[in-house]
Structure formats: C-alpha cells, structure tokens
Specification:
It is globular and about 50 Å long. α6 runs antiparallel to α7 and α6 runs parallel beside α10. It has 150 residues and is mainly alpha-helical. It starts with a helix and ends with a helix. Helix content is 67%, strand content 0%. The protein has ten helices and no strands. It has one domain.
Amino acid sequence: MERTDKACQYHQSGRNCAQSVLAVFSDITGLSEAESLRIGAGFGNGAGTGELCGAIAGAVMTLGLLTPSDPDNPAAGKREAAALSKEFQKRFQERFGALRCQELLPLRFTPDDATPAAKRLGLSEKQHCRIMIVTAVELTEGLIAERGLA
C-alpha cells in the first residue's frame, strides 16, 4: 500500500493531519506506529491554535528524524533540518497558498496535476484536509529521495 493511501486511511479513522503524515513514515523514522501517533497527537488543527498546518508539522518531524546528526557538530544537523523544513514549507505553500491551518481550512482545493495522489485517490474539495495530507506525504517522499535520507 502506498504511503498516501495509508495516510488517507489514518485520517479517515479519526487521526489528525500530523499523525496521518508522521505515522506513514514509521518504517524509516525509527519510531513505531504507536509512538508516531502519540507524538503527533497534539499537532492537529495547528496544534490547537490554528497556526502551522498539522500536515506540515508531521512532515517537518519526519524530515527532522531522518536528518543526519553529528554529536560533535550539533549545529550542522540543526541547520540541515531547518533547511529541509524551509524547503518543504516552500513547496507546500506553492501548492496551497498558505501554511497556517486557520487560513487553509476555509479554502476548498480540487485535486489537479499539482496534487497527483489526491487526484488518484478521487478526493473531493470536501476532503480538503486529506488533499493536504496526501500532498504533504508526496512532498516529503520527494525530499527524502532528492536528499538520499532513507
């Protein structure tokens, strides 16, 4: 099963956006599924404040967990993780026009060529969070492949 399909299933079962993204990468982050779901639990609905979208938070946590870290030079790992986070957010914002949950929730997205998994899954504008979730998974997979993180 593709990660995007699994992320969609997590959300359909009641998990929040962050949990849905973070948990599908459990096989490569070193976290168990249960740990991923617990860690992501507080990040839904912009961590309850409407701020940073939970799908973004799940992706940033995933990328951070996959970023190499050198105990002798912790600043280098921190810089790399921040750069990945920034690049992910840039790509997400290019697709959706915002990063804040509060701004994204009222919008209605129609899957198109910029959101291929959402299009393949037949998601509708009524499933806007799932569109963002599966697109966040796609973007994360792309960055992982580009940077050789897995």
